[in-house]
Specification:
This protein has one domain: MetI-like (MetI-like fold). Helices cover about 80% and strands about 0% of the residues. It has helices spanning about 5-10, 15-45, 50-65, 65-80, 90-100, 105-115, 120-125, 130-140, 140-150. α2 (about 15-45) packs across α6 and α6 runs antiparallel to α9 (about 140-150).
Amino acid sequence: MDFSALGARLCRSRVSRFLKNTMVLAGATAILSMVLFTFVAYVVIRTRFVGRAALDFASWLPSTLPGIILGLGLLSLFLGNPLLRPLYGSMSLLVLATLISSMTLGVQIIKSALTQLGLELEEAADRLRRFRVGTAFEILFCPLSLRLCYSLGL
């Protein structure tokens, strides 16, 4: 069997739909986890936010709870709330569950990278009157890019 026949067979079958769903799940989870985990780690490490200890504690919760308890909690949340019931069985719920399950390790990897970066980078950017978002993207993204790739592989 040549590859063109195999490709045609895959396109006709339900496998192409399964592959599409897998790629959507992986892509959405990777992008959202990178943004969310970086934001959580930055708030916990670099800000003086009042609730940063609670946020750090919340990032550890998924690894302290057994997976079955976490899954049943999500199930009861989405089935018990009439507003969230239409999301049950959708791709968004799968993305949310994957984000929650990989939160602890992803946040800890990015927190360790932020701890290793000195505050001098941000202070220098503040002295040059750069915006906070510009500072975070230009000054911190390049040194963190390798760690962000590690956290995407979770």
